[in-house]
């Protein structure tokens, strides 16, 4: 993402036009803002397309102790399939190097078919394993759908904080590059939770990989968002969620 002034405002018409283009061309969004769990959840729900009556394929990457939502698709009544990649800590007594494989289990959630893949979190299970699993899942979804429509695939990664804590920055960057490219290849919509301040070093480092950054906050008991779009002169106004 090109450098932009956070003090200037994006033109409203251009902002709406750019958002529509993101849906048609595919996009990856960095979702930032600390201390606003409920706001993250609300934006996440919308970006997953759970409020739409259109069919969606969903791919979720989350940890055992989910940061911002349960990802149980409580509003997803139309999605034909949801795939969940859950990062688990090593079980008691399990060697850190005992596995680098994925075990597939299936369960029903909200009357949709959900495939849940568990990847044990160990130093030996690198993010490249997860990145490859995401790529394979996207490929499988596209093949099974006979070609995805723009924005039909929705991807959520919740959250990036554990990755930045447990892996080298370069490793996280490579994982994000692989994952965002997989989403864009099928004109999907991906969003990645990073609950830090918009001017945090980690945000500044990672946001060039994304088409937009969305900052959320809680203000006067309500939830708000503002968008920083690539190639725009500045952010949108604060928009009520």
Automatic annotation (TrEMBL):
<dbReference type="Pfam" id="PF24336">
    <property type="entry name" value="DUF7504"/>
</dbReference>
<protein>
    <submittedName>
        <fullName>Uncharacterized protein</fullName>
    </submittedName>
</protein>
<dbReference type="InterPro" id="IPR055927">
    <property type="entry name" value="DUF7504"/>
</dbReference>
